[in-house]
Amino acid sequence: MAAPRVLVLRAPGTNCDVETAHAFELAGATAERIHVGRLTENPALHKRYQILCIPGGFSYGDDIAAGRILATRMRHHLDEMIHHFVDSGDNLVLGICNGMQVLMRLGVLTTGVKTPQLAEATAEDAVASPSDQNWGSETNTPEFEIPPATLTWNNHGRFEDRWVHLAVDKTPCVFLKDIDQMYLPMAHAEGKFVARDADALEQLRAAGRLAIRYCDTDGQIQSETLPFPINPNGGDANVAGVCDASGRVFGLMPHPERHIDATQHPFWTRRKVQPEHGDGLQMFRNAVQWFA
Ligand SMILES: NC(=O)CC[C@H](N)C(=O)O
Question: What are phi and psi of 196, to 5 degrees?
Fold first, then answer.
């Protein structure tokens, strides 16, 4: 099997690209960190790659809303690249933290959710939506249509940095194959997953799109919104990551690339048995194996 080639997308403010490329390399892929500017000047560059990964950070300083400017730049200048990775069926897309925020703004994680009241929706509906929740002109949505879900500010309104337990649901997500639980660091300010309404949330749940969720130390999810700090941001249904219908496009807020080695675990010196790797590595291995 030839090693799949990964395009780790950089933008001004990206700060997890080196670790993310390293995680992919450790899993057997070939990873290159490419600045968004290099892609806009040579749009055919993306054709050399099979995996697109948008890593974590503060692209464009999180101005307007985290991920918004990079997503807009991609939508306007790199539409062919988005099509190549998202729609072709042969490639994978991973967004980590700021990368998930970009994928949410692009609308590629929540496609296929029906909007029953669309016919009656008016421009006033859009005006009436809470402006502080980042509801905006997500991809391909007419001005008056509110996207099925978004990411907004953590409940406490601050940047939160801590380790979290995660439970993996049965979904088609390629990256989470054969993983039940993970312990990973999260580090974000705008990571609260909010569905447009109960109907949109149920559609995403029924379609197996809510791939990974915050849980307690035993892997249990006892309530629809677990208390802080188990659910670090107060997001709906404890959602930490979402995949598209095919399972090839996946975004998650916690950082798998920060737990690929067992010694990155906060209590590693106190553990009786050292696992061979950190919990996050399997996600990158699953991506590589998908091409085998
Ligand atoms: N670690 C990250 O990628 C941070 C994401 C984003 N800047 C936020 O604070 O929400």
Answer: -60, -45
